[in-house]
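Dear H.,

Thanks for agreeing to be a second pair of eyes. The structure we're designing against is below in token form, covering all 411 positions.
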């Protein structure tokens, strides 16, 4: 068991031409993450394509430390992850699992899955009794990762477990892009099954819904449903000794230096300096979470104001009105995400960080991405146009954003 280096918010897409079946799923499945139910495979494919910009943004962020000019960057991984990941709404728009019925008119489930191409998520096919051989062939060909009989008695339980497992698999796969940021010692540590289990237990205690492993300084940035953003610093016996030496050189009191050396405290100086926080770096209480090798951890609440799942909200889309509301919320969030970003305990990001965020963009702003989605949404039918018009009246968006929406609807 290797410890996954990344966990993102979960989002699952369900596709079936029978709306009654989707409504039954919607009512039966636990509403613990974002969900999108669609009776149209064509609409579902467009939705997945629209998310591509967010997947590319995440992959660019995770891959950047491995780039040749990494050491020339002013900002370390922790500050970049806070500024362009935890402070961005787009991470809630990453569908990691698609559940699609095989037997649909116009475009069957496998035809839809084939259109997804290199999409990094996992695919589950719902099958009838007559579809078994087709599903086995698709599984063996790598088109799907799981097939589940639609008439299975405990379908909801099996489906929920499968989606959770598939989401974890996607996170682990994408997280592998972070391995170049880790030292070999830390890789070996995280690859130890008992260490992975101990860290998973600690994350469960902290009730984190998402996290990113940081290589230097070594630790995790994580977040529960409603925050705060926290830093979980990891230290070994050897690294604590080095930390004690640094603390002594920085003039820390002898009693505190001895406390660090003995494993009572952890000094957060590296992350404090990396994030350019004001004041003296605090000492946090150390906890041994694994023996042989001994692994210590300390938790530090950061002053940053991330976009949390509690503030952003979970999607539960099954009707045009639901999606219209989601689109306008995304537009508002994308419009304010940069001004809401904090890389330290000031109200605004520094100009240097603003330039960095602009440089690492994937060629299109979030606002433009959402406006394109709005334009395509209203073209689907008069019902969709009316749903967006109604949602716009109730949205409370500023006039400049309302004008952008109106132009997108007309364009």
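And this is the sequence the design step returned. I haven't edited it by hand at all.
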């Amino acid at each position: 068991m290797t410890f996954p280096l990344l966990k993102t918010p979960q989002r699952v897409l369900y596709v079936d031409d029978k709306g009654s079946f989707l409504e039954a799923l919607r009512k039966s499945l636990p509403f613990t993450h974002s969900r999108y139910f669609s009776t149209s495979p064509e609409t579902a494919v467009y939705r997945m394509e629209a998310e591509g910009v967010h997947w590319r943004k995440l992959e660019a962020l995770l891959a950047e430390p491995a780039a040749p000019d990494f050491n020339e960057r002013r900002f370390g991984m922790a500050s970049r992850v806070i500024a362009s990941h935890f402070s961005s709404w787009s991470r809630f728009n990453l569908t990691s699992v698609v559940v699609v019925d095989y037997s649909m008119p116009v475009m069957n489930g496998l035809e839809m899955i084939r259109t997804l191409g290199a999409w990094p998520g996992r695919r589950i096919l719902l099958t009838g009794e007559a579809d078994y051989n087709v599903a086995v062939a698709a599984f063996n060909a790598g088109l799907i990762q799981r097939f589940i009989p639609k008439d299975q008695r405990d379908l909801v339980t099996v489906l929920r477990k499968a989606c959770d497992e598939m989401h974890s698999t996607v996170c682990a796969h994408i997280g592998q892009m972070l391995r170049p940021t880790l030292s070999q010692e830390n890789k070996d540590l995280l690859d130890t099954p008992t260490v992975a289990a101990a860290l998973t237990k600690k994350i469960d205690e902290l009730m984190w819904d998402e996290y990113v492993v940081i290589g230097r300084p070594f630790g995790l940035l994580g977040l529960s449903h409603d925050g705060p953003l926290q830093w979980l610093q990891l230290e070994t016996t050897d690294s604590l000794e080095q930390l004690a030496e640094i603390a002594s050189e920085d003039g820390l009191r002898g009693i505190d230096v001895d406390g660090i050396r003995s494993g009572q405290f952890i000094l957060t100086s590296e992350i404090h300096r990396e994030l350019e926080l004001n004041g003296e770096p605090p000492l946090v209480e150390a906890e041994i979470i694994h023996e042989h090798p001994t692994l210590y951890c300390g938790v530090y609440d950061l002053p940053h104001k991330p976009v949390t799942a509690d503030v952003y909200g979970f999607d539960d889309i099954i009707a045009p009105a639901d999606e219209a509301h989601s689109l306008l919320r995304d537009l508002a969030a994308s419009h304010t995400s940069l001004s809401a970003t904090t890389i330290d305990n000031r109200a605004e990001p520094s100009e240097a960080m603003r330039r960095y965020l602009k440089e690492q963009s994937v060629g299109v702003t979030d606002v433009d991405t959402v406006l394109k989605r709005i334009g395509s949404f209203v073209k689907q039918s008069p019902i969709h146009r009316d749903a967006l018009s109604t949602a716009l009246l109730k949205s409370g968006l500023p006039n400049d954003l309302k004008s952008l929406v109106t132009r997108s609807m007309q364009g």
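Two observations from my side: The chain has two domains: 6-175+307-410, 182-301. The first strand starts at residue 6 and ends at 7.

Warmly,
E.
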